[in-house]
Design a protein that fits this description.
single chain, two-stranded antiparallel sheet, 749 residues, alpha+beta
Length: 749
């Protein structure tokens, strides 16, 4: 029986809300309820409990995981010739494929009980990150079997029989998996797929059994050209009622051996000329028994739920690890190159125009790796972090693009000329791959981070929506009455928090006892309250139309993402023992984050259709308060952190493959070390204003020092040099290219 408040006050609001908010489809409901919320919910609350963040145990590698990283993982990187993979063979060498199988690189997430390595999410991330600093093609080959695909889905949802049969074979590489989701009709909107399975009877192992007749046409499927088992997502129908009364059962995931009649694989796409195995697959009248449905027949129609639950690996681990690798390698190499390369008799790292992108590289490397660590910590607690994984996927790959652009700008012509010694080009070509796969960033940013996060992370929004979805009118009103007024109370508290913190500039906002970074926590508390209040006003004034206002939801998603990444950077600083030398990079990251948060919030308010709400929000949040970019002095200080060798530089860039004799990273590192070693000698020469030979004659330098200078100059020349090719070598790279005729040269003469 509903109370007086519900009948008099809540009932008309309930009626309005029913009309304002569209009914959730089954697909939307499954997407919203998949996974769980964690630290992002505290940021969304408007009053984050910082103790919850600081109490998260930092992730660590076990001795076994560390040994794998130092052993097989490093050995793999030494085996790889990335130029040969991408420009000559269009594939990993046979011995590399064999090595990957032998050391169970494809079975990192498979439990030891089923023959896998049973590694943690953090170990998985560290391995992918390390390999990515050497070869994107190799990293993608390793990441896909350990990400969204048959292994992950069988591990989470498979029957005991499926686990016993498939997981050991996947772990040791006897079976190589791929997962077919994307098709021409269904990209980011997977529910639009037309790939179909029909329940029917057919022949299997000489007997007539109940099964599924499949027809599909998928594209962009990594490992499809070489896979032996295809995980397939399709729409299942039962027109003859062989399973029950439902004809359109829904999206289903099943295992399809690729040696079955009607299955076609083998053709390849060329994703940005990065030669990992990727291609289309089609199937025509392919029959499989019902027990090939992942999870068995009872999981028919539950494919979308399964996919949403399993996306955390691809979005939260694999692609963010590759993105962080690219940012770290960009910072590592750019800092070294800026120390080595001279113009106007000065290392280019001393020019202000170079220091600005260098500082951004350092800050992004520090902050994004901090967010990667925090996300892995949550995943290793057993959490399915759907919203955070979306944040990580989008922003790690966005910042990967920014980092490589900065690195290319500083390296200039060195990075433009392709060849075996160009360590930036392979990652630069991979940028659009990371940004478009596992859910295109445009959709992830505009619809998922805030669209899903606003409902899941908000303290009361999901309860409101579930109450409105209740079919029984009495129960719906009763549940809505409870959740709605709790929502009103929350909004009222948030309003006063936001206003008070805005008026005081956040000086008295909650913060932990965090030493020098306590003011940054206070500012985050301020913007968390402003964000939560703005979200509630957006819900109030736009209702269900909010999900169509993608520019507004995209900016709101950016704010939540910036708060998550910055809070992770603060936790990293705490976890690493409050390293004083690293404080400038934390302050730089905070200044950049607050500038982006303020700009995004100001633009949200400026574009709210309800102008009264915009006016009220502007008063209560003061988004126009001045936030500037980091000062020139701070920028110079942060750029020095990757310019000079130090423990800070090592922490910022993290584990990076040090290079081998087939790439330019090794000679860059050797030259960097030599230039730093010779700095006092070169300073002596500069102060005396003499050439090396004059210095020798004047007794300023010894003969041994002259030899060291010559060795250094030889290394510098090797670093600055770019690759070139004879016509014959180019003809070998491009066999169809004809040798140039002598006629143009003769005509010119």
């Amino acid at each position: 029986m509903t109370g007086l408040r519900a009948r008099l006050l809540t009932k008309p609001i309930h009626k309005w809300a029913k009309g304002a908010l569209p009914a959730l489809s089954q697909t939307e409901s499954e997407a919203l309820t998949a996974g769980e919320v964690w630290w992002e919910a505290e940021l969304f609350s408007g009053n984050p409990d910082w103790s919850k963040l600081l109490d998260v145990t930092p992730p660590k590698l076990s001795p076994e995981e560390q040994a794998f990283l130092d052993g097989p993982c490093r050995d793999l990187c030494h085996m790889i010739n990335d130029w040969q993979i991408n420009h000559e063979d269009a594939d990993l060498p046979a011995e590399v494929w064999s090595f990957l199988r032998q050391h169970k690189f494809f079975g990192m997430i498979i439990p030891k009980s089923h023959g896998g390595l049973g590694f943690s999410a953090f170990a998985h991330s560290e391995i992918i990150r390390f390999i990515s600093t050497r070869s994107v093609a190799a990293a993608v080959t390793v990441m896909v079997p350990n990400s969204l695909g048959p292994g992950e889905l069988i591990h989470q949802f498979g029957t005991d029989e499926q686990k016993e049969h498939w997981l050991p074979r996947l772990a040791d590489g006897r079976e190589l998996p791929a997962f077919g989701l994307t098709s021409a009709e269904a990209g980011s909107d997977a529910s639009a797929m037309i790939d179909e399975g029909v329940i029917c009877k057919g022949a299997w192992d000489g007997e007539e059994v109940l099964g599924i007749r499949l027809n599909w046409a998928k594209r962009y499927i990594t490992l499809a050209p070489v896979c032996t088992v295809l995980g397939l997502a399709f729409k299942l129908r039962d027109p003859e009622g062989l399973l029950g009364d439902t004809e359109d059962i829904g999206i289903t995931c099943a295992l399809v051996p690729t040696d079955l009649e009607g299955v076609e694989t083998g053709r390849r796409h060329l994703p940005s000329s990065t030669m990992f195995m990727n291609g289309p697959t089609t199937g025509k009248d392919v029959f499989i028994p019902l027990d090939h449905i992942i999870g068995g027949p009872e999981y028919a129609g539950r494919g979308w739920m399964m996919l949403m639950s399993a996306l955390a690996a691809g979005r939260g681990i694999s692609l963010p690890s590759m993105g962080c690798a690219a940012i770290a390698l960009s910072a590592h190499t750019t800092g070294a190159y800026a120390r080595i390369r001279q113009q106007f008799n000065l290392p280019i790292g001393k020019f202000g125009g170079i220091q600005s992108p260098m500082a951004s590289l350092a800050a992004d490397a520090y902050a994004m790796d901090a967010a990667r660590h925090l996300t892995c910590a949550g995943l290793d607690e057993g959490r399915a972090l759907s919203v955070i994984s979306a944040i990580m996927k989008a922003h790690a790959t966005y910042r990967m693009r920014d980092a490589l652009n900065h690195a290319m700008d500083v390296h200039s012509g060195k990075a433009v000329i392709d060849g075996p010694s160009n360590y930036l080009q392979p990652l630069y070509r991979a940028v659009p791959i990371g940004i478009t796969v596992e859910g295109a960033n445009i959709v992830t940013r505009s619809l998922i981070i805030f669209g899903q996060g606003s409902i899941r992370a908000h303290p009361h929004m999901l309860d409101n929506m579930l109450a409105l979805q209740e079919e029984d009118p009495e129960k719906s009103l009763e549940a809505f009455d409870k959740s709605f007024w709790a929502h009103v109370g929350h909004t009222t508290k948030t309003l006063f928090r936001s206003w008070g913190r805005a008026l005081t500039g956040g000086r008295f906002a909650p913060a932990p006892d965090a030493g020098a970074v306590a003011p940054i926590y206070r500012q985050l508390s301020r913007w968390s309250a402003a964000y939560a209040l703005t979200a509630d006003f957006a819900f109030l004034t736009l209702g269900g139309a909010l999900k169509r206002k993608e520019m507004i939801s995209g900016r709101m998603g950016d704010i939540l993402s910036e708060m998550y990444i910055l809070s992770a950077a603060l936790k990293r600083w705490e976890d690493e023992g409050r390293q004083e030398a690293d404080l400038p990079v934390v302050e730089f990251a905070a200044a950049e984050a607050f500038k982006r948060i303020q700009t995004a919030l100001d633009e949200v308010i400026a574009n709210l259709p309800a102008r009264w709400a915009a006016w009220v929000l502007r008063v209560l949040t003061l988004p126009g308060a001045t936030r500037r970019s980091p000062s020139d002095r701070l920028t110079e200080t942060v750029s020095e952190l990757i310019y000079e060798p130090s423990a800070s530089r090592d922490r910022i860039t993290g584990r990076v493959f040090e290079g081998c004799n087939r790439d330019g990273v090794q000679v860059l590192n050797q030259c960097y070390a030599k230039v730093v070693e010779m700095a006092p000698v070169m300073k002596r020469l500069r102060d005396a204003r003499k050439t090396p030979q004059e210095g020798l004659e004047a007794g300023i330098l010894s003969a041994a020092e002259i030899e060291e200078i010559e060795a250094m100059n030889a290394l510098v020349a090797e670093v600055v040099a770019v690759d070139d090719f004879t016509p014959e070598a180019l003809a070998a790279l491009f066999p169809s290219r004809k040798q140039p005729s002598a006629a143009p040269r003769e005509a010119a003469e």
